[in-house]
Amino acid sequence: MLDVTDLTLRYGQSQVLHGVNLSARAGEVTAVMGMNGVGKTSLMKAIAGRHPFRSGRITVDGRDLGHPSAVEAARAGIAYVPQGREVFALLSVAENLQTGFACLDRGSRAVPDRIFDLFPVLAEMRNRRGGDLSGGQQQQLAIARALVTQPRVLLLDEPTEGIQPSIIKDIGRVISTLREEGEIAIVLVEQYFDFAVGLADRVTVLTGGQVSYTAEKGGIEREALLGAVSL
Ligand SMILES: Nc1ncnc2c1ncn2[C@@H]1O[C@H](COP(=O)(O)OP(=O)(O)OP(=O)(O)O)[C@@H](O)[C@H]1O
């Protein structure tokens, strides 16, 4: 599904990613872990067309995306739920969801009922302004908005950050449901260790902008992973 090969990225003279490889498969959760500032968000932004990368390759189902813009990445099936959520505070919940239509053909512009099955709270709050929602509700809205784009690949950047435990559980259930449905490849950037390990089928750890550890389900050793994530 998603394959990132030898990706490098710079901010001016400062190189932040040094030849990063990452693979994500449909029906699996790929966790990307590592300390603050190791380049996790930069990697997500590069994949989502939010920041240009210097060299490397991004493919979805074998198709090379080149250096995609955000719209091109979205049309290729990549949805990005950014750290901090970026919900439109003055738009209603329904309108926030409709912003996901931008990358869809006119005929497919609808919010599927399934979105409200996954996030019942959004049905109740459909007419409320995004800015009136709690942080956890905004996080659910941001994930729902990403799903409206009918993605093949869902990039979640620290979805538990600053969220209360009951909503973290809800978000975990939604990720599990999406995984079981088997259609979407989920990339989960996460510093909440137990949450990430509980969901992950594969783990990639970044240290200083390089992949320092990878493992797949069955081979994910908690102690080794804890050690890798702490570097
Ligand atoms: N727009 C930018 N301009 C310059 N440097 C940046 C920019 N964005 C991030 N950086 C730097 O790039 C490095 C990687 O940042 P990035 O946000 O990708 O890391 P991260 O692993 O996601 O960290 P965190 O967990 O804190 O979000 C950091 O040193 C950061 O200060």
Automatic annotation (TrEMBL):
What stretches pass through the bilayer?
none
Q: Which family does it belong to?
A: Belongs to the ABC transporter superfamily.
Q: Is NAD tagged as a keyword?
A: no
GO terms under biological process: L-amino acid transport
**Which Pfam families does the protein's record reference?**
ABC_tran
Keywords recorded for this protein, A-Z? Amino-acid transport, ATP-binding, Nucleotide-binding, Transport
Record-level Gene Ontology MF annotations: ATP binding; ATP hydrolysis activity; branched-chain amino acid transmembrane transporter activity
- Domain of life the protein comes from: Bacteria
ABC transporter domain: residues covered? 2-231
This protein is called High-affinity branched-chain amino acid transport ATP-binding protein LivF
Would I find Transport among this entry's keywords? Answer: yes
